[in-house]
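The records we work with from here on pair a chain with its fold. Each token is a code from a learned vocabulary of local backbone shapes. A record is reproduced here so that you can trace the correspondence yourselves:

_____
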Amino acid sequence: MERMKLWYLHNLLIRKATPETNMEHIVEKIRSMEEYCCDCYDEKIDLSSAKFVEMLVVDGFFIIELFRKMIGDMPRGVDDPLFNRSGMLSIVQNDLLLLENQLPWRVLDCLFHQVPGGKCKSLWELTQRILPSWRGLEYFVSHVPNTLQSRHLLDTLRILSVEFESDKNEKVCPFRVRIPSATELLQVGVKFRRKRGFDSILNITLLDGVMEIAPITLDAEKSVFRNLIALGRV
């Protein structure tokens, strides 16, 4: 994967999108926010200053280049194993949503604007196009305007799902109430039914004693939920 990241970075730089698309300029841009980036992590960074900045640049550009390839903005190439080897892309997608693998959103946004071009004019727009296409997230993401501040990619997923749906529900019912458990609902006669098709997991309806809930396969998405839960604790 480290060789793959460097290959992605090389392909991105040789496109020379602007006169400032060079490693020296990009490294200086990220070095200028190094202190901010260090403060984003709870644990002490066990890397030298140069290695830390290098990691931010290499990993950040890898994510952006991958996203652009996924929406067809950049050619994938027949020699790209992420798209030509079965299961590789799913593994990378899963790794990108691990809490311990997150990069500060400010870094990704800065790098995104260092190499402009493509269909998406902002990192937020690119992310909103990408996440619903990932396996298991098509019913998990709402498209919202870029009005909320994200900390990193996993936090963006939280904003696009739970936070935005909660904001919409808050306008309808502004009072926080305790939601009974499924066991308690069964005891009072509520029946459960699977909704047809894919929908937001938060779009739950109750009519004539029947509660309909969108289906979700936890085998495929349990890692996402575990990391969202872990994110809620920090």
